[in-house]
Amino acid sequence: MPVDPSATIAPTARVHPDAWVGPQVVVGEYAVIEQDVSIGACTRLEPYVFVKRWTTLGERNQVSACTALGTHPLDKNFQGQRSYLRIGNDNIIREHYTISRGTQPESVTEIGGGNYIMTSGHIAHNCRIGNRCVIASCSLVAGYVEVEDQAFISGGVGVHQYSKIGRLAMVAGNAGVNSDLPPFFMYSGYRVAATGLNLVGLRRAGFTREQIATLKKAYQILFRSRLKLEDALRRIENELEDEHARHLVRFIRSSKRGICRE
After folding, report:
1. pLDDT tens per residue across span 43-67
2. What is the CATH number of the domain that holds 155?
3. Are 166 and 145 in contact (CB under 8 A)?
4. Full strand arrangement of the beta sheet holding 128-129
5. Alpha helices, H only, the chain
6. Sign of dihedral through CA atoms 64, 69, 72, 76?
7. 226 and 170 within one domain
């Protein structure tokens, strides 16, 4: 049955017969759910939410008023073929937000689980957002951006296409991200620059004193040793036996845009 009997659909909402609406879903007034949409159990859509074709929402998501999910990509190369937006479980997406599906046929925009996405922003086509991230109000995430788990993007940030933001990185408000931001550090400025460890985020994530000290040493080697980048990475590998330091090195070595500096 496309609409589970336990779902609550407002009288003014429009749900396509070919959409699937799971148990205990709540769909608010004037919401629109197109065909080929799947809404997982216990998800709540507030009034005027628009869920477009080929969008999948997992369970226990909360989507606030006037948000549009699965919109056509803001990309001149888009030809209208089938592509997807896939959103995991336990996300909060607040008012007036838009998230696009992929540009190329059968490509995907992916949002993980447990994210808090605040008001009046946009996540563009083919982005990959991890788990337990925060994206604050009025931030704009361009196409093909990757954001690793537990990153924090403050309000008014603009992220250039193809950029990558590492795990537990914190980007200060109104920053302009036009390069890759390695994990565990803080960043700020119109031309974004590293400013130290994300100490608050690391402590909240349960990092020990020893792990934080190791990452502080990695930061000093990377940004303050005056070594060439590859020499700094080799020194981190040789001196710091830590899984998070190894993740930092892997992230930097995989960078295609280059990392920002201090």
Report:
1. 999 999 999 999 999 999 999 999 9
2. 2.160.10.10
3. no
4. 20-21, 38-39, 55-57, 84-87, 108-111, 128-129, 146-147, 164-165
5. 199-204, 209-224, 229-239, 243-253
6. positive
7. no
